[in-house]
TrEMBL record:
GO cellular component: cell surface; cell tip; cone cell pedicle; cytoplasmic vesicle membrane; dendrite terminus; inhibitory synapse; presynaptic active zone; vacuolar membrane
Any Pfam family: Aa_trans
Gene: SLC32A1
Cited function: Antiporter that exchanges vesicular protons for cytosolic 4-aminobutanoate or to a lesser extend glycine, thus allowing their secretion from nerve terminals. The transport is equally dependent on the chemical and electrical components of the proton gradient. May also transport beta-alanine. Acidification of GABAergic synaptic vesicles is a prerequisite for 4-aminobutanoate uptake.
Keywords recorded for this protein, A-Z: Cell projection, Cytoplasmic vesicle, Membrane, Neurotransmitter transport, Synapse, Transmembrane, Transmembrane helix, Transport
Protein name: Vesicular inhibitory amino acid transporter
Gene Ontology annotations of biological process type: gamma-aminobutyric acid import; neurotransmitter transport
Gene Ontology MF terms: gamma-aminobutyric acid:proton antiporter activity; glycine:proton antiporter activity; L-amino acid transmembrane transporter activity
Transmembrane segments: 148-172, 212-231, 267-287, 307-327, 339-361, 381-406, 434-451, 457-479, 491-510
Catalysed reactions listed for this entry: 4-aminobutanoate(out) + n H(+)(in) = 4-aminobutanoate(in) + n H(+)(out); beta-alanine(out) + n H(+)(in) = beta-alanine(in) + n H(+)(out); glycine(out) + n H(+)(in) = glycine(in) + n H(+)(out)
UniProt record similarity statement: Belongs to the amino acid/polyamine transporter 2 family.
Listed InterPro entries: AA_transpt_TM (IPR013057)
Length: 526
């Protein structure tokens, strides 16, 4: 009996000694020294596993503590965090009644009961965004850039298609089994991952601010152009441009009740059809004057002062990166995303290039900021009505995305939320959530009334947030998160896009701001 007891004590002591030696050797190995034996390496790995299990147990205890009821009544409910805890450090999913599950990006992060969209519906959304009202300013870009303006329309399409793809690539990582899984759900999550661990929330805050500015400015521009077009279409009516903007905003108030992208996709389909009708009408009129086209007016030199504003207009017309993570996560087949991006941007490039060139050839040096102002009175009224319909149908998508960003930033359930969640346990929108949405619609109206400069606002926004969200940040995030997996030409593309985007952003912002100040001075003198 004594011999057996001594044998067990000896085995325990030997095991403890081996584990201690293995852990010490492992520490030296992490510091750069070679491990002594294979046995010690195995022991070190085993200690790592024990350490991970201990940390995981602590994390589970914390999650269970947070999920326990305050009283002692009833049995302990199952904790959702226990199921969704990830070894990679992923946070637990939000509770079933939260906004993330109602409007999340799908996949691992979104709810499974929300409606999914097909690749065609996603394509309609992207087409609606990159072939929106801002195509009206492209002939003005050709006026100040000539053939270089046409080249930039093509170049911007290629770059924005590429940055959209690499942005989605930043949502995925390989797990321990070598499978590519979606570990992030938004632009903000990508930014936070890039700034972690030193500044884990800084990147998300920067992206949130840029997203909100971009989306709200897009909504404002739709209201501005709606009021302007209706006023110019019916100049004989005793209705001012501000009154038309108020009427347009009243029509847009039902947007406050949108709950998912399924309804937005239907609006986008109608909007795209209206866009084709507009293009056909304008191009048909231009073709009727093909004999008078001024090919000699298309120049190779540029207006150094005004062309940077045109760069902002072109970039802003291709902005779609801000809601691509949400669209990709809501697709029934996310694998079709790349194909969808290709055909939408090819179609946008061809249509924008032809529209800008044909319109400029028709009016040459008389080309105005909004090309429909060059049309004769009878045709202008018909085209402007379609344009107003397109603007009103285009409004819901950026509005829905802006509301989603605000709700996730300020009203999301959790300890870091500034305000209570906008959705109840049954998934219904609460009163303050509806108030937030209505207030956002009214804010776009007020800005449209007091800052009614369409082209300058579009150039300013495109140079500031458009270039940042479409060029600078996607290339920077791609380099930061996937550096070890990138080939040399991918690194070259990312660096080149970052440098070119930075130059265009600074120059366009400065010249747009100067133009805006000059416009206010002119209005003050008048």
């Amino acid at each position: 009996m004594a011999t057996l007891l001594r044998s067990k004590l000896s085995n325990v002591a030997t095991s403890v000694s081996n584990k201690s030696q293995a852990k010490v050797s492992g520490m030296f190995a992490r510091m750069g020294f070679q491990a002594a034996t294979d046995e010690e390496a195995v022991g070190f790995a085993h200690c790592d596993d024990l350490d991970f299990e201990h940390r995981q147990g602590l994390q589970m205890d914390i999650l269970k503590t947070e999920g326990e009821p305050c009283g002692d009544e009833g049995a302990e409910p199952p904790v959702e965090g226990d199921i969704h805890y990830q070894r990679g450090g992923g946070a637990p999913l939000p509770p079933s009644g939260s906004k993330d599950q109602a409007l999340g990006a799908g996949g691992e992060f979104g709810g499974h009961d929300k409606p999914k969209i097909t690749a065609w519906e996603a394509g309609w959304n992207v087409t609606n965004a990159i072939q929106g009202m801002f195509v009206l300013g492209l002939p003005y870009a050709i006026l100040h850039g000539g053939y270089l303006g046409l080249f930039l329309i093509i170049f911007a399409a290629v770059v924005c298609c590429y940055t959209g793809k690499i942005l989605i690539a930043c949502l995925y990582e390989e797990n321990e089994d070598g499978e590519v899984v979606r570990v992030r759900d938004s632009y903000v999550a990508i930014a936070n991952a890039c700034c972690a661990p030193r500044f884990p929330t800084l990147g998300g805050r920067v992206v949130n601010v840029a997203q909100i500015i971009e989306l709200v400015m897009t909504c404002i521009l739709y209201v501005v152009v709606s009021g302007n077009l209706m006023y110019n279409s019916f100049p004989g009516l005793p209705v001012s441009q501000k009154s038309w903007s108020i009427i347009a905003t009243a029509v847009l108030l039902p947007c406050a009740f949108l709950k998912n992208l399924k309804a937005v996709s239907k609006f986008s389909l109608l909007c795209t059809l209206a866009h084709f009708v507009i293009n056909i009408l304008v191009i048909a009129y231009c073709l009727s004057r093909a004999r008078d086209w001024a090919w000699e007016k298309v120049k190779f030199y540029i207006d150094v002062k005004k062309f940077p504003i045109s760069i902002g207009i072109i970039v802003f017309s291709y902005t779609s990166q801000i809601f691509l993570p949400s669209l990709e996560g809501n697709m029934q087949q996310p694998s079709e995303f790349h194909c969808m991006m290709n055909w939408t941007h090819i179609a946008a490039c061809v249509l924008k290039g032809l529209f800008a060139l044909v319109a400029y050839l028709t009016w040459a040096d008389e080309t105005k900021e909004v090309i429909t102002d060059n049309l004769p009175g009878s045709i202008r009224a018909v085209v402007n009505i379609f344009l107003v319909a397109k603007a009103l149908l285009s409004y819901p998508l950026p509005f829905f995305a802006a509301v989603e960003v605000l709700e996730k930033s300020l009203f999301q359930e959790g300890s870091r939320a500034f305000f209570p969640a906008c959705y109840g346990g049954d998934g219904r929108l609460k009163s303050w959530g509806l108030t937030l949405r209505c207030a956002l619609v009214v804010f776009t109206l007020l800005m449209a009334i007091y800052v009614p400069h369409f082209a300058l606002l579009m150039g300013l926004t495109g140079s500031l947030t458009g270039a940042g969200l479409c060029f600078l940040l996607p290339s920077l995030f791609h380099l930061r998160l996937l550096w070890r997996k990138l080939l040399w030409h991918q690194v070259f593309f990312d660096v080149a896009i970052f440098v070119i985007g930075g130059i265009c952003s600074v120059s366009g912002f400065v010249h747009s701001l100067e133009g805006l100040i000059e416009a206010y001075r002119t209005n003050a003198e008048d």
